[in-house]
From TrEMBL:
Name listed for the protein in its UniProt record: KIB1-4 beta-propeller domain-containing protein
InterPro entries for this protein: F-box_BR-signaling, KIB1-4_b-propeller
Organism: Solanum lycopersicum
Residue ranges annotated for the KIB1-4 beta-propeller domain, each copy included: 68-174
Coiled coil residues, start to end: none
């Protein structure tokens, strides 16, 4: 092979990545080289195996790892995920909607490739509904994606939050605002 392992086609690498069954093996796959990691990003239509495997993300232990419990294997697997440290996480379509309660920063995080999509902040969410600082912000309750950003660039994030009363907000990827 003239070019070596780094020169394999993205289509072939994505096909291989789609056959990986364990989070640990997937992480090893992405560590081989940059091109192998790139093959697992949304641009290459990587089909996240976590959407096929029921997993529960366990509570934050205030370190750079998050633990996932596999219902099928009845086993806990730690994943290095510093982007989720001390953030609220809401899973949907193989992604995590994360929110930093201190800064209000919000992102979509692909927990395997660690790709992040920045969302408008919690402050922008509040302002979009005519709510200012005087409103008691209680919590973000749910965040649901209409489709995986790995599959389409045109998706909607629905956010259910509580600010004096329960509210819904919609964020469309093409518009980048609530």
């Amino acid at each position: 092979m003239a070019g070596g392992w780094a020169e394999l086609s993205m289509d072939l690498l994505a096909m291989i990545a789609n056959r990986i069954e364990s989070p640990k093996d997937f992480l090893f796959f992405t560590c081989v080289c940059t091109s192998w990691q790139i093959a697992t990003t949304p641009n290459h239509k990587f089909d996240i195996f976590f959407t096929k495997t029921p997993l529960l993300m366990l509570a934050d232990k205030h370190d750079d790892c998050r633990e996932f419990y596999s219902l099928i294997k009845q086993k806990v697997t730690p994943l290095f995920l510093p982007e989720a440290r001390q953030r609220y996480c809401f899973p949907s379509e193989g992604w995590l909607c994360t929110m930093d309660d201190t800064t209000g920063e919000m992102n979509l995080l692909h927990h395997l490739s660690r790709t992040q999509i920045q969302l408008p902040s919690r402050d922008n969410l509040m302002a979009s509904n005519g709510l200012g600082d005087e409103v008691f912000w209680n919590l973000l309750e749910h965040a649901i994606l209409s489709a995986s950003p790995c599959v389409t660039s045109d998706y909607v994030l629905v956010v259910n939050y509580h600010a004096n009363i329960t509210r819904l907000a919609f964020w469309r990827s093409q518009l980048n605002k609530y």
